[in-house]
Write the structure tokens for this entry.
Amino acid sequence: MSIEWIEPVLASTTSIGVVYLLGSLGEIYAERSGVLNLGLEGIMAIGAAISFIITIAWGHALAFLVASVFGMLMGFLLAFFTVSLRLNQIAVGLAITMLGSGLSGFIAFPTTRKTILQFLNPELPSTALEIQSAPMLPSVPLPFLKEIPIVGPMFFNHNIAVYIALMLAPMMWFLLFRTSIGLKIRSVGENPGMADALGINVFRIRYFTCMLSGVFSALAGAYLMLGFQPFWIEGMTGGRGFITLSLIILSTWSPLRAIFGSLLFGGIEVLQYRLQLFGLGATSPQFVLMLPYAIAVITLSLLSLESFRKRISAPAALAKPYYREE
Amino acid sequence: MFKLERHTDISRKTSGLIVFLSLLLAFFVTGIIFYLLNVDVIQFYLIICNVFITPALLLQVVFRSIPIILASLGLVVAFRMGFWNIGAEGQIYMGMIAATGMVILHVFYGAIPASLMLVVMGAVSFLAGGAWCLVPASLKVRLGVNEVLTTLMLNYIAMLLVDYLVYGPWRDPEGWGFALSIPFPDYATLTFGGHPSMAGIIISIAVATLVYVLFKYTKLGFMLSVLGKSGEVAKYAGIPVGRVTLLGSLISGGIAGLGGLYVVSGMIGRLRPRISPGYGYTAIIVAMLAQLNPWLILPAGIFFGGLLTAGDALQSSLRLPFSVITVFQSIIFLCIILAEFFRRYRVVLKR
């Protein structure tokens, strides 16, 4: 058996993995500071819908920019409800997920989309108002590096967003674990009372991480739309936001390990497409489609086993609102 | 500066007023957002009101609110014991699968006598929904796995399981290749006096009564409430936390499973893919709006059933996508959560 099939498989593993990676980078910051952003799924959907529309009107660069602005707004909403008003993070997150999936379906709906596009760019030709797909980000193979067997096609033959995401991961790891701002973020998530006593502004840190998480969730959605699957379908995020939340636990809240977690779930998704082509997938693809969700449940369970739990520890103040004694 | 003071005691009247005001806020905020997105807001609200005052549509409203009400009553049990069951959607689907499975057993294998069909279908869909909730519950009890993510994942799995069955082994051989199960025979149809909604209302009121009795008069209900207030206290009080959690989630998922029974056997008469427009998620909002009070679930559920019905009307008359209803629902959800804040705190101006 030749190994030629393995290179395209690895290439698409990275392509999908980056959706998870972008989502997890921001979410890790939020969780490290003690806020669970369950709205990730919905903000992703908003990011996808907005980038779809803005790309058609104004091009790729602004699409990512506008999507992240909206992501930041959603992150602000999350912070206002959970940090300032100290409301339940699970309920608020679910509400934001519903809001995001509803709004994305609404603004990308053909008639609404047409109105928005005409407003944003009156010179668009009528065909552009109707299309269901966005122009994809062009692939930029890196010279020489792409020639390396296996590693080349896996990492060096992609669009620019993939390279940026892969570079961001170590940078965000460094920021979180080797700088004073990272230390502040982590201490707020471990012991907000102590952090507050040491003069760290708990509220400001959490606002920052929530908005950061919003930005990255939206970027994950924008990348999903522009870099991976350029056809708009309502509900195209398909639970990937929730799967991201599980892989963060698997990555023990580390941006570097999130690369591996993301590639793992990216790989499972590729496996799913491959299996659909032959064997089990051809007769009943549904079981193959269940794989990512089932594996997420199994992973969560295994990680909760006593022997694992000692080694990974969640931020102690995760999902707990902070009350300042006055 | 502002300062927050905890309410020590809040009257039921004030609490109700806060929730009412938060609903008004939701109407207002939704109006602004839709106005910005070029929707005829007046027309939008008129259509929604119309659904509740036109008798023919009101029947449709009740018809569609039953699955929400049932799932929501199930969630009352879970939420009161502090178990974040986000999986009502999947539990509804499992209830549907179980009910359809019984019909298939009966029609093709003659397994169950026709006179017992509805009883058996009810019992089996309760158990199937309950079992689907027992999976995350036992993972929580045995391994300490957080239930939020697992219940969510199981929703997707249940939905795909329905797809598998109706595209595969359960596809109606006489269904011209559509992804449908066989139609349910008359004696497997949930109806009372010719109206499925009537049967649905009776079941809903019965279940609401049972949930009320459970928490008001039984030891199990008391233990569930203590567990919901604090897991630590429950442990020190000698409550078998594990067993109570399992039992509570069996009941919670089971009631949602009954919602699934109503959908296939009362509303549609067949199993087909993606039947639920998110009943299980809407049920979360309803449970919170009703403040986990089983009696209030009924009107709250009917309100949201009305929104779903209005969603269809909006599609045909204003040519809006169904997702406008999702947006409206989620804004209501956020405002209800906000109401929780005002029920807990008083904002005081401090100099």
